[in-house]
Design brief:
Radius of gyration: 13 Å
Bound molecules: zinc ion
Shape: globular
Structural class: alpha+beta
Number of strands: 5
Number of helices: 4
Distance between the termini: 7 Å
Number of domains: 1
Strand order of the largest sheet: 1-2-3-5-4
Largest sheet: 5 strands, mixed
């Protein structure tokens, strides 16, 4: 699995999650904190969404330059009162379905890591 396949797989997984009612956004904001706050606000406004999966610009920049040197960290969360681990499982399964090489320990407090190559 090369970097291009990893990148294409993440893109396809995000598209698949959107079809399943999850808000999926790459480069949501500058860092993890700002992105989490933004996606939380968006979930409040879009009550039909189950949850959110997202990346932030710093992690994307490291994933993209130099190609393959660093992992991409993907965050996820449920709407208030929802099951964050279930959103994590949906994300992990969507990535695996695309053949993306990734790691997750199943802990809802841990990001899913898409391996660089
Ligand atoms: Zn920030």
């Amino acid at each position: 699995m090369g970097w291009n396949e990893q990148e294409a797989g993440v893109k396809a997984a995000f598209a698949a999650l959107r079809k399943r009612g999850v808000m999926a956004r790459r480069r949501a904001a500058c860092c993890g904190g700002c992105s989490g706050a933004l996606m939380g606000d968006l979930l409040e406004k879009h009550s039909e969404k189950l949850g959110a999966v997202f990346t932030h610009r710093q992690s994307e920049a490291r994933f993209h330059r130099p190609y393959g040197a660093h992992s991409l960290m993907i965050s996820y969360g449920a709407r208030k009162g929802g099951d964050t681990k279930a959103i994590g499982m949906m994300l992990f399964e969507a990535l695996k379905a695309q053949g993306v090489v990734c790691e997750w320990d199943g802990n809802p407090d841990t990001n899913i890591e898409v391996k660089g190559c």
